[in-house]
Design brief:
Number of strands: 10
Largest sheet: 7 strands, mixed
Radius of gyration: 20 Å
Strand order of the largest sheet: 6-2-1-7-8-10-9
Order of helices and strands: HHHHHEHEHEHEEHEEHEEE
Distance between the termini: 52 Å
Structural class: alpha/beta
Oligomer: single chain
Number of helices: 10
Helix content: 40-55%
Shape: globular
Length: 270
């Protein structure tokens, strides 16, 4: 099934204006491969009829299915370990000092995919804080566009391969075998992640500001204008002294940003 140029532009404009994702014409093959079988499943023979279907569907289910198809969610536990080392050495001490009276730790995993990132942070917090963790609110907000990956995160079930970069002691301590190929995460760790569907292009609804926002390997899909707008919103929703972690393949234009550069992929609000 082929997609016409004007059909591709309709999808590209729709995705960019509603979800911030930037698709160039180089992605034509990507769109065809991701959506071809879905279009046929719904009984359509062309991309135009499918586009009308998803934009007119009042239930929202068609849009969710569409997003699940076009978003890539490849991740694993302890990904980009330098971030977790910096969290231990700098971010956690900052939070513990700043919030020592109220003991409220506010962390947002934006674009959390299937939950490996927030769960890794919670395992690290459990190791570092020991018995003190019980006296703090350490719940992590984890958001994503895709219901599919959010459901996977909520299930807490992961293939063995996704644990290969975890410290072996952690894998043994925080996971139990489900079957020969899959592991299930500890219920106490699982209970501290709040999974929510959220579109980063929407107004932020949060009443409190965060000490740490992680938005890693998400903005690679955005154009510069959309990325700069999102970075400014992140800045506004961080506490003074709060940190932003982005992906190591991503950069922030420091000439247009209020963030202070700390080290690759790590920025701070001062």
């Amino acid at each position: 099934m082929d997609i016409k140029k004007d059909e591709f532009l309709m999808f590209a404009n729709f995705i960019r204006s509603n979800f911030g994702i930037n698709l160039t014409e180089k992605k034509t093959t990507f769109i065809i491969s991701r959506l071809g079988t879905t279009i046929e499943k719904h009984g359509f023979t062309n991309f135009l009829d499918y586009f009308k279907f998803i934009t007119n569907d009042k239930s929202g289910e068609a849009i969710i299915e569409f997003l699940n198809k076009i978003t890539t969610n490849h991740t694993y536990f302890y990904r980009e370990e330098k971030h977790f080392e910096f969290f231990e050495s700098d971010v956690l001490p900052y939070i513990l000092e700043k919030e020592k009276n109220v003991r409220d730790m506010r962390i947002w995993s934006a674009g959390c995919s299937s939950g490996e990132e927030p769960y890794t942070l919670l395992m690290l917090l459990n190791e570092l804080m020991n018995s003190d963790k019980g006296y703090w609110d350490t719940k992590i907000l984890a958001t994503d566009l895709s219901n599919y990956v959010l459901l996977k995160g909520k299930s807490g079930i992961y293939p063995l391969d996704s644990l290969k970069y975890l410290p072996p002691v952690w894998a043994k301590k925080y996971f139990k075998p489900l079957d020969e190929s899959n592991m299930v995460i500890d219920k106490k760790i699982k209970a501290d992640v709040l999974f929510r569907r959220f579109n980063l292009m929407e107004p932020f609804p949060f009443k409190s500001k965060f000490h740490l926002i992680l938005c890693r390997n998400v903005m690679i899909y955005f154009n510069e204008e959309t990325k700069n707008e999102l970075i400014n919103k992140f800045y506004d929703y961080l506490e003074p002294g709060g940190y932003l972690f982005i992906g190591h393949s991503e950069t922030i234009d420091r000439s247009n940003s209020r963030f202070k550069y700390i080290r690759p992929a790590i920025y701070r609000k001062e």
